[in-house]
Amino acid sequence: MDVGSVGLEMGAAIAIGYFGGRWFDGLCGTRPVLQWVGLALGIVAAGMAIVRVSRRYLRDADRSDDGGTGDGNAGL
Q: What is the mean pLDDT of residues 26-41?
């Protein structure tokens, strides 16, 4: 996944959580409890996407800085 697509992934995670919770609320008759739970889970999933992309970006930047060895202390 590219860094540019993380915004789309975040929006999709939040929307799926919100509308999925809303749908479950309709089935269970618990409005709006599951809607808010789904929204919270969607926000957590979006945050996890940011962390995942940030780690990958930093790992790739570290590799390019030290000649591709992956060792952050190669220049010391």
A: 97
